[in-house]
Amino acid sequence: MVGASLAGLSAARSLRKQGFDGRLVVIGDELHRPYDRPPLSKEFLAGTLGEAELALEAQDEDLGAEWLLGARATGLDHARRAVRLADGREVRADGFVIATGAAARALPGSAGLAGVHTLRTLDDARALRDELARGGRLVVIGAGFVGAEVASTAYALGIDVTVVEAAPTPLAGPLGETMGAVVSALHTDHGVRLVCGVGVKGLSGEERVDAVLLEDGRSIPADIVVVGVGARPNVEWLEGSGIALDNGVKCGADGRTSLAGVVAVGDCANWYDPRAGHHRRVEHWTGARERPDAAVAALLAGGAVEPGVPRPPYFWSDQYGVRIQFAGHAAGADSVTVEAGSADGRDVLAVYRRAGDPVAVLGMNQPRLFMRWRKQLAATAS
Ligand SMILES: Cc1cc2nc3c(=O)[nH]c(=O)nc-3n(C[C@H](O)[C@H](O)[C@H](O)COP(=O)(O)OP(=O)(O)OC[C@H]3O[C@@H](n4cnc5c(N)ncnc54)[C@H](O)[C@@H]3O)c2cc1C
User: Fold this and answer.
1) Measured in angstroms, how far is the CA atom of residue 376 from the centroid of ligand 1?
2) pLDDT one-digit tens code per residue, 299-319
3) Which CATH number, 3.20.20.70, 3.40.50.1360, 3.30.390.30, 3.40.50.150, labels domain 321-381?
4) Which long-range contacts (C-beta less than 8 Å, at least 24 apart) are formed by 197-203?
5) Which of 107, 210, 261, 266 could form a disulfide linkage to 288, CB 3.0–4.6 angstroms apart?
6) What is the pLDDT of residues 219-230, one digit of tens each?
């Protein structure tokens, strides 16, 4: 198992649950045991959840695995059935699960400038939390979900926040134009400045950042900058291994890769979606948690298994006290209708349809109705 986080741990659990009783080695480059990432931009950053509460393993959980933590995989030698580690060690195995997740994209030219943060790991979150505690003006670059959550948490901590987004409408990709605008209006509802439709040219400052420079010539003063411009799959270490890579590890509908005895799960894996007829890489907690079951079944079977129809992808986000939930795919919908609540009231339940069939559902503070629609969506999909 390469990658010791949610997808890796879930795969290890699936292996034991499905009867694998052989040697199991989990390799992870972080020093921490598996921890939960969603709270890093929410309760942990706000200081209301401690590190111990991030643990993904139960206290008495014992998977009988060997954990090689602080160990970075640098290559996969498929012919020799071996994973090479940065410290020169080698781990040989009959089967491999790739679960190396994704890394936050950096802003070119920002390396080494104090006050500039990305947020992917516990160490990132510790550093940002300490900095927010000192106060100041925060500029968040990118109004995607992680950026928006950081803005919301910092706002609640009493920090002056500006969010800058290159697209004219934030979240238009995942939610569509109409609902992207409704959700991102949460920023302005709370007096957080939202600057859209303009790119970032760079950052200014000698040793420490002091402003974000926009392409239209404006300069936004900043003491702290959070770069939230998405993530890229951690697959560089697989280059040259012969495995098919395409926006992550290219997989079939059951997680099998182009190499026999190798499956990939979680944020690094670009699974084939039989419903859509193309591959999709999904960066959501629930996919990293649920999909390893199918991948492990295929690994243990040593060949194709009937993966069943996967549930439509689902994610949630918490911003300004509003729980946002989304399931399905907004792209390709030809209509969006409000089924309950209202966009203005920020308590909307909206259904996306294509040719009359529901393809996605969005809820803002509508957890019960949302779950009902999510079930219906899954039933329609299957
Ligand atoms: C701040 C934040 C908030 C989020 N909030 C939400 C949310 O509200 N809702 C939601 O649905 N999703 C959310 N997510 C996404 C969710 O956390 C991810 O989908 C999930 O963590 C993916 O799990 P994973 O195991 O595939 O990858 P990761 O969690 O990225 O874990 C991969 C692990 O592999 C390690 N690794 C990488 N390369 C190597 C290597 N070469 N050798 C050894 N180890 C390696 C990494 O260091 C890491 O520990 C959030 C993510 C972040 C960062």
Assistant:
1) 28
2) 999 877 776 677 899 999 999
3) 3.30.390.30
4) 197/165, 197/166, 197/167, 197/168, 198/164, 198/166, 199/166, 200/107, 200/141, 200/164, 200/166, 202/109, 203/107, 203/109, 203/110, 203/113, 203/116
5) 266
6) 999 999 999 999
Res 306: pLDDT: 74
Q: Give the atom of ligand 1 at the shortest distance from the alpha carbon of 32.
A: 49
170 lines ligand 1 (CB under 6 A): no
What was the pLDDT predicted at 332? 83
What string of H, E and C letters represents the secondary structure of 5-68? CHHHHHHHHHHHHCCCCCCCEEEECCCCCCECCHHHHCHHHHCCCCCHHHECCCCCCCCCCEEE
What is the per-residue pLDDT across 45-77, written as a single tens digit (0 to 9) for each? 999 999 999 999 999 999 999 999 999 999 999
13-51 per-position pLDDT tens digit: 999 999 999 999 999 999 999 999 999 999 999 999 999
Cβ neighbours around 136 below 10 Å, total:
14
- Pocket perturbation via mutation, ligand 1, pick of 234, 235, 263, 315 by most ligand atoms within 8 A of CB: 234
106-229 placed in CATH 3.40.50.300: no
